[in-house]
Amino acid sequence: MATNFNPEHSEGTVAKAIEEQTAKLPSDIFLWAALASMGASATLKILGKEKTALFVGQWAAPFLLLGTYNKLVKLEGHD
User: How many structural domains comprise the chain?
Assistant: First the structure.
């Protein structure tokens, strides 16, 4: 639990509900999702679908950010 608790800056009910659900997911899911999006992007690029390959390839960063957020929620918790 965080030692710098400030009641003026507490999480809302929606954020708490999301954090409780995402904390149940293993962190590996986000890493595998990022790797899968990179693989799908490479496959699409080989198939000549340039714009779709770029679109799918950009999913990797958000997946990794979600994985980092997931890990922080598991380690630090919310409020």
Answer: 1
15 within domain boundaries? no
In a domain, 51, yes or no: yes
pTM equals 0.73
Give 17's pLDDT tier (boundaries 50, 70, 90): confident
DSSP 14-73: HHHHHHHHHTTS-THHHHHHHHHHHHHHHHHHHTT-HHHHHHHHTTHHHHHHHHHHHHHH
Whether 5 maps to a domain, the answer reads no
- Give the integer Cα–Cα distance in Å for 60 and 12: 28
Radius of gyration (C-alpha) of the chain in whole angstroms: 17
Domain that holds residue 43: 25-76
Q: What is the pLDDT of residue 22?
A: 76
Assigned domain for 64 exists: yes
